[in-house]
Amino acid sequence: MPAKNLLIKKNQIKRNQIGRVKTEKPTNPWGRDENGKLTFVRVLKPGETPLV
User: Fold this and answer.
1) Which end of the chain is less packed: N or C, by CB atoms within 10 Å?
2) Residue 45 to residue 49: CA distance in whole angstroms
3) Which residues pair with 20 in a beta bridge?
4) What pLDDT is stored for residue 18 in this prediction?
């Protein structure tokens, strides 16, 4: 079982998260709505590192 407070470069990794991603160019992440259709979420800027 992993440690309770796992930190990667000052970002806490929560249960069921895989790690981090670094974007090198503008990227459009997509999500699913309540009907299962893909919907645009937002634009990730270069250098932004969201947790995944």
Assistant:
1) N
2) 9
3) 51
4) 72
